[in-house]
Design brief:
Elements: E1 3-7, E2 12-17, E3 20-24, E4 79-82, E5 89-95, E6 98-105, E7 134-139, E8 152-153, E9 156-158, E10 164-173, E11 180-189, E12 192-201, E13 210-213, E14 222-231, E15 235-244
Parallel strand pairs: 8-15
Antiparallel strand pairs: 1-6, 2-3, 4-5, 5-6, 7-10, 9-10, 10-13, 11-12, 11-14, 14-15
Length: about 250
C-alpha cells in the first residue's frame, strides 16, 4: 500500500501515517535560507550563530537540503529529496512564494510514513548574551507575527500516532544577528509540565512554525496550558492559553 504524506502551505499538514494527519499553520511573515525559508519571501543566512542575517532572499532553485515548509521560494523547479529512511522520496514545489511538499509512503515493517521536521533545526546555537534583547511568542498563523492573547484558545493539532501538539512562532527583538538559538519549551497542562529543547533557526529574530508535543487531556471541559519558551541568551516569554473540549482522534 502506498499513500502520500503531504505538507501544505497555509494549513501545515504532516501525515504521520497513512490516512492520519496533523494540521497547523506555518509562519508566513518569517524568513529562511538554505534548507528553510519564510513564506512571505523572507530568508536568512545559513545556520551558525551570531552571524549577520541576510533576510528576504527566497530560494531561486532547488536547495542542497530539503527545505522547511513555508520557506520562501521563487522558482518553478520541482525538487526531490530522499527521505532518511532510504525508501521514500519527498517532492517540493514553490506555491504562492513558499515551499510545499509531499512524500511517497511505503510503510516499512514496524514503521510508518515519513514525518516532516517539527522545527527548522540548525547547528552551533548562540551561546552568548544579547543585552537589551526581548522575546515574544505567538500563534503559527499566516501573516505578520502577533503575540498570543491572554486566555487564547491553544492551537492544538494531532499527530498520526495520537500525539497532541501546539504550533507557535518566536520573535526575538534586538537579536537580528542570532541565526541559530537554543530554545527550551515547557508546556504545562493543568499544572503538569512537559519540556524539551531544540536548536532552532531564527531569521532576523523570527522563527518559522515550531511544533511542540503536549500532554493534552481528552476529556471535555476547559483546560489550562502555560506555554513557556526560553531562548538562550535572548529572553523568556510565557503565554497562558486554554484548551476547550479537546477531542482525541479515533
Amino acid at each position: 500500500m502506498r499513500c502520500l504524506a503531504h505538507i501544505g502551505l497555509l494549513s501545515l499538514t504532516l501525515t504521520l501515517a497513512c490516512g492520519s494527519k496533523v494540521e497547523g499553520d506555518p509562519a508566513s511573515g518569517g524568513a529562511g535560507g538554505n534548507g528553510g525559508s519564510g513564506a512571505s519571501g523572507a530568508s536568512a543566512a545559513t545556520g551558525g550563530s551570531g552571524g549577520s542575517a541576510s533576510c528576504f532572499v527566497p530560494d531561486v532553485s532547488c536547495p542542497a537540503e530539503r527545505p522547511f515548509v513555508g520557506g520562501a521560494c521563487d522558482t518553478a523547479d520541482v525538487c526531490q529529496f530522499e527521505d532518511p529512511n532510504k525508501v521514500d522520496t519527498w517532492t517540493y514545489q514553490c506555491q504562492a512564494g513558499a515551499w510545499v511538499g509531499e512524500a511517497t509512503c511505503a510503510p516499512l515493517l514496524g514503521g510508518g510514513c515519513p514525518v516532516a521536521p517539527l522545527v527548522e533545526k540548525c547547528t552551533d546555537p548562540f551561546d552568548g548574551q544579547k543585552s537589551g534583547a526581548g522575546l515574544k511568542i505567538g500563534p503559527a498563523t499566516p501573516g505578520a507575527f502577533r503575540e498570543f492573547q491572554d486566555g487564547e484558545e491553544a492551537p492544538l493539532t494531532w499527530g498520526g500516532q495520537g500525539s497532541p501538539m501546539i504550533g507557535f512562532r518566536i520573535l526575538a527583538t534586538g537579536a537580528d544577528d542570532v541565526s541559530c538559538a537554543r530554545v527550551d519549551t515547557t508546556a504545562s497542562v493543568n499544572g503538569l509540565p512537559g519540556s524539551h529543547a531544540s536548536a532552532i533557526k531564527l531569521h532576523c529574530g523570527e522563527s518559522l512554525t515550531v511544533l511542540t508535543i503536549v500532554d493534552a487531556p481528552c476529556d471535555p471541559g476547559v483546560h489550562s496550558i502555560e506555554l513557556k519558551v526560553v531562548v538562550q541568551g535572548v529572553g523568556t516569554a510565557t503565554a497562558n492559553l486554554k484548551l476547550t473540549d479537546p477531542a482525541c482522534p479515533g
